[in-house]
Specification:
About 60% of the residues lie in helices and about 0% in strands. With about 100 residues, the chain is mainly α. The termini are far apart.
Protein backbone atom coordinates (compact mmCIF):
# COMPACT_ATOMS: atom_id res chain seq x y z
CA UNK A 1 0.00 0.00 0.00
CA UNK A 2 1.40 3.35 -1.01
CA UNK A 3 1.42 6.14 1.58
CA UNK A 4 -0.06 9.45 0.63
CA UNK A 5 2.03 12.45 1.56
CA UNK A 6 0.52 15.48 3.22
CA UNK A 7 0.96 18.28 0.71
CA UNK A 8 0.25 20.87 3.42
CA UNK A 9 3.44 20.07 5.33
CA UNK A 10 6.35 22.50 5.08
CA UNK A 11 9.89 22.24 6.31
CA UNK A 12 11.02 24.20 9.35
CA UNK A 13 13.32 26.26 7.12
CA UNK A 14 10.39 27.15 4.87
CA UNK A 15 8.32 28.06 7.92
CA UNK A 16 11.08 30.39 9.17
CA UNK A 17 11.37 31.99 5.74
CA UNK A 18 7.62 32.63 5.67
CA UNK A 19 7.34 33.80 9.29
CA UNK A 20 10.56 35.86 9.60
CA UNK A 21 11.81 36.38 6.07
CA UNK A 22 14.87 35.02 4.33
CA UNK A 23 18.25 34.87 6.06
CA UNK A 24 19.89 38.27 5.99
CA UNK A 25 16.70 40.27 6.42
CA UNK A 26 16.42 42.38 9.59
CA UNK A 27 13.45 40.43 10.99
CA UNK A 28 15.14 37.07 10.39
CA UNK A 29 18.45 38.29 11.83
CA UNK A 30 16.64 39.44 15.00
CA UNK A 31 14.95 36.05 15.29
CA UNK A 32 18.25 34.20 14.84
CA UNK A 33 19.97 36.36 17.47
CA UNK A 34 17.16 35.83 19.98
CA UNK A 35 17.21 32.09 19.31
CA UNK A 36 20.95 31.90 20.02
CA UNK A 37 20.43 33.75 23.32
CA UNK A 38 17.62 31.33 24.17
CA UNK A 39 19.86 28.33 23.44
CA UNK A 40 22.60 29.79 25.63
CA UNK A 41 20.19 30.21 28.53
CA UNK A 42 18.96 26.63 28.16
CA UNK A 43 22.54 25.34 28.00
CA UNK A 44 23.50 27.14 31.22
CA UNK A 45 20.36 25.92 32.97
CA UNK A 46 20.96 22.31 31.89
CA UNK A 47 24.60 22.41 33.00
CA UNK A 48 23.61 23.92 36.34
CA UNK A 49 20.91 21.31 36.94
CA UNK A 50 23.26 18.44 35.97
CA UNK A 51 25.57 19.62 38.73
CA UNK A 52 22.65 19.92 41.19
CA UNK A 53 23.30 23.62 41.69
CA UNK A 54 20.65 26.18 42.48
CA UNK A 55 20.73 29.52 40.70
CA UNK A 56 21.87 31.04 43.97
CA UNK A 57 24.76 28.58 44.33
CA UNK A 58 25.88 29.17 40.75
CA UNK A 59 25.69 32.93 41.22
CA UNK A 60 27.80 32.69 44.38
CA UNK A 61 30.46 30.58 42.64
CA UNK A 62 30.89 33.05 39.79
CA UNK A 63 30.34 36.37 41.57
CA UNK A 64 26.96 37.44 40.28
CA UNK A 65 23.39 37.41 41.56
CA UNK A 66 20.64 34.79 41.48
CA UNK A 67 18.37 37.20 39.62
CA UNK A 68 21.02 37.68 36.91
CA UNK A 69 21.38 33.90 36.45
CA UNK A 70 17.58 33.65 36.27
CA UNK A 71 17.38 36.40 33.64
CA UNK A 72 20.03 34.66 31.51
CA UNK A 73 18.30 31.29 31.78
CA UNK A 74 14.98 32.88 30.83
CA UNK A 75 16.40 34.85 27.90
CA UNK A 76 15.59 38.17 29.53
CA UNK A 77 19.08 39.59 29.71
CA UNK A 78 22.01 40.26 27.44
CA UNK A 79 25.22 38.79 28.77
CA UNK A 80 28.74 40.13 28.53
CA UNK A 81 31.39 37.74 27.24
CA UNK A 82 33.48 38.16 30.40
CA UNK A 83 30.48 37.26 32.56
CA UNK A 84 29.62 34.29 30.37
CA UNK A 85 33.19 33.03 30.67
CA UNK A 86 33.06 33.40 34.46
CA UNK A 87 29.78 31.50 34.68
CA UNK A 88 31.03 28.66 32.46
CA UNK A 89 34.54 28.41 33.90
CA UNK A 90 34.23 29.32 37.58
CA UNK A 91 30.59 28.53 38.17
CA UNK A 92 30.18 25.37 36.10
CA UNK A 93 33.77 24.17 35.70
CA UNK A 94 33.48 24.13 31.92
CA UNK A 95 35.40 25.57 29.01
CA UNK A 96 33.88 28.10 26.64
CA UNK A 97 34.61 27.58 22.94
CA UNK A 98 33.43 30.10 20.36
CA UNK A 99 33.20 29.88 16.61
CA UNK A 100 32.31 32.41 13.97
CA UNK A 101 30.63 31.53 10.70
CA UNK A 102 29.73 33.70 7.74
Amino acid sequence: MKKKGNKNLTSFADHLDKQYGKKGTPKRDAYEQEFEAFKLGVLIQEMREQQNLTQEQLASKCGTTKSYISRIENNASDIRLSTLMRIIQKGLGGQLNLSVTY
